[in-house]
Each structure stands twice: as C-alpha cells, then as structure tokens.
Design a protein that fits this description.
Structural class: alpha+beta
Strand content: 25-35%
Helix content: 10-25%
GO cellular component, one term: cytoplasm
Number of strands: 19
Organism: Bordetella ansorpii
Largest sheet: 8 strands, mixed
Domain Suppressor of fused-like: 42-205
Protein name: Suppressor of fused protein (SUFU)
C-alpha cells in the first residue's frame, strides 16, 4: 500500500512469501509486478500478483496478491490490522501441461482491488459479489458471481504492521449465488466443497446444485438456520396510507414483480428466526420484523411487524404478477405488485415481468 523504498523492511511482503513457502517450498512463482505505482497515477492498486502451479488435487494455478496490506512501513492508525486486513487468492483449474497462468485473473484481481481502494469497502469471509457477466469475459463460462472465504491452506498472518488473512475468490454460477443468498454463503460453500476441492475455480463446470445430496443439504440447512441475507434492493418500492370512510387507514406496500420471489422466499427464512428483512430503494424503505402485527412510520421508512401466520400468508399469497393482495391475517395491510420492465444498457425495454 506504499511506494517501494530500498531502505524499508518489507514486513508484509515477507509474510506473504513465507506463508506461500510453506506450501511451495521449492517453487519459484510466476510474478507479475506493477510498473507504475497507483500513487503515481498508475491504474493498478496492487503491487504484484504471484501464481504457483499446482497438480493436486487437480491441476490449477494458485494466485496470491500483494498490496491490500501494508507491505512495507506501517501507515494506518490501526495497529492491530495491516492495511485492509486481507490479501486475495484465487485457484484456477488448468491443463496439466500449462506453462503460463491466464492473464484475465491478474486483471480480475486488480479490478477487485480498484473497487476496494476507491470505495473503502472491504471483503470479508462469507461475502459474495456479482461480476455483472462472466468472470472471464472472453471465456465460455457459467461463472458470473464470486464468493470469498478463507484460503484453505494459507492461515491468518501476524506481522509488525498488524494482522491479515488470505481470502480466496471462488467462481459461482448464478443459481449457486442465489442459493447462497437465500441461505448462508459459508454453509453453501461447505456443502459444495466435496465437489470443489480446495475451492478451485473451474471455468468449464456446470452448476453443482444438481449433484447428489446438494439440494437436500441446502433445504435442510435453511429450515434449521434460516437465511443470513437481511435486505433486498429494488428500484420499485413505495408505500402509502389510504384513508377509509370507516375504520383505520390501509397501508399499501407496492413492490415490483421482479423482487417478489426473493422477498417472499426470504421472509419465512428471516422473521421466524428473530431477524429483520429490509426492502431498500433510493426513496423509501420497508422493514419487516417479527412480532405482533403492527405498523409505524418514521420519515421515509415503514416498519412492519408480522406474526408467523401473516408471514406464512404473504409467502403463499404473493405472486410475481400485477395485482392487489389484501391480507386476511393483517386487515390494515395490503401489498400491491406492479410489472417490472427489464431494460438493456441503452434503456430499451427487453422484457416485462408481471
């Protein structure tokens, strides 16, 4: 995270090298350094990425970054953590006779670094991220998401600059990522691990959800522990209160059809386990919480507490198609669904849902 000075002691760099040497004691890695420092106007935040060739449990390249942590002198005020607190790794399946690691991984890891350096947002064990397309742009692959978990062979390191861990980037298919979102990423990865040794990313693979026992394990896990996902982002969310001549007003929550399936799936995986579910938009938010049926508002936020019967009714009643859905178990609440227009990058409507 700093410019190289020949007089500086490379505590962080040496710690990364030492960790890798425990796995590859006799191998000289392929190393790709950054020519122009990020601080001097260069485009690459990381100072380097190494790649090690590995033949077991399947032939693959093991990439390791240098630069999310403080490689040389201590700069941050947090004495306990080195830099952002992690370096990234990625294991990519390859042919046994492959001589050079694919460069797209180098670019992909640098792109992840640009996101971290520009936003200050960090990755944590159990996070996942949409790649907005194939993780390898020029390859024919179904992997369009990535998950992050502790590298199974590189433990947390203690250095004079603070502690850091190695987070491994793992390619996922869309349905695997959705399963992770509806359950827990780390639990899903554990279920997939027998079919993905060392969490090696294989661009040629299909979804692992069809493997024997995987879906049963996921369903059983959801029933036992619910979901760790506490929010749904949507551009189509509104709420209002409609007065009635007799009785209390009706509160109407309007939701786009595209988000209905996710919201109705997550509600019974959150509230019965004592956890909130938040619907978030740029203008208004809705927070569903467990409890006796009740409503209250605060600024642009509608707080809705629901008992188990109402949660079950919403999950079974709501459909991803246009309509009004009054609730029998909660007389003062109605949920309206309106169609969602899916647009291409030019703003043209390519699909209407609902």
């Amino acid at each position: 995270m700093t410019d190289i000075d020949e007089d500086e002691v490379a505590h962080g760099w040496d710690a990364i090298d030492a960790a890798c040497n425990t796995i590859y004691p006799t191998q000289e890695p392929k190393h790709y350094g950054t020519i122009i420092s990020y601080r001097l106007g260069g485009n690459d935040p990381l100072q380097g990425i190494s790649a090690y060739k590995r033949m077991d449990p399947a032939p693959h390249w093991h990439y390791v970054t240098y630069g999310f942590t403080e490689l040389y002198s201590k700069e941050s005020d947090d004495a306990e953590i080195s830099g952002y607190g992690f370096e990234l790794t990625l294991r990519l399946r390859c042919e046994p006779d492959a001589e050079d690691p694919p460069m797209w991984v180098i670019n992909f890891l640098q792109n992840l670094a640009r996101y971290v350096f520009k936003t200050g947002n960090i990755f944590r064990d159990g996070d996942w991220l949409a790649a907005n397309g194939p993780i390898a742009v020029e390859e024919d692959t179904r992997l369009t998401y990535v998950a992050f978990t502790a590298d199974p062979e590189l433990p947390t390191q203690q250095t004079p600059n603070g502690e850091f861990e190695f987070l491994q980037v793992i390619g996922l298919t869309e349905d695997e990522a959705y399963a992770a979102r509806l359950w827990r990423t780390l639990d899903l990865l554990e279920v997939l691990r027998p079919h993905m040794p060392l969490y090696i990313t294989d661009l040629a693979r299909d979804s692992l959800l069809g493997q024997p026992g995987v879906q049963d394990s996921i369903e059983r896990g959801r029933k036992e522990s619910g979901s760790s996902t506490g929010y749904v982002y949507t551009d189509e969310l509104d709420w209002r209160q409609e007065k009635r001549l007799l009785g209390k007003p009706t509160t109407i929550v309007t939701l786009g059809a595209l988000q209905v399936q996710e919201a109705t799936t997550l509600l019974p995986l959150r509230l019965p386990f004592g956890r909130d579910l938040r619907l978030l938009s740029n203008n208004k938010n809705v927070v569903f919480a467990p409890g006796e049926n009740a409503l209250r508002t605060e600024d642009d936020v509608l707080y809705v507490t629901l008992d188990d019967a109402t949660v079950d009714e919403i999950a079974s009643l709501l459909q991803p198609r246009r309509g009004e859905y009054p609730l029998k178990s909660f007389k003062g609440l109605r949920i309206d669904v309106r169609p969602t227009e899916v647009k291409d990058p030019k703003g043209n409507v390519v699909q209407t849902i609902g």
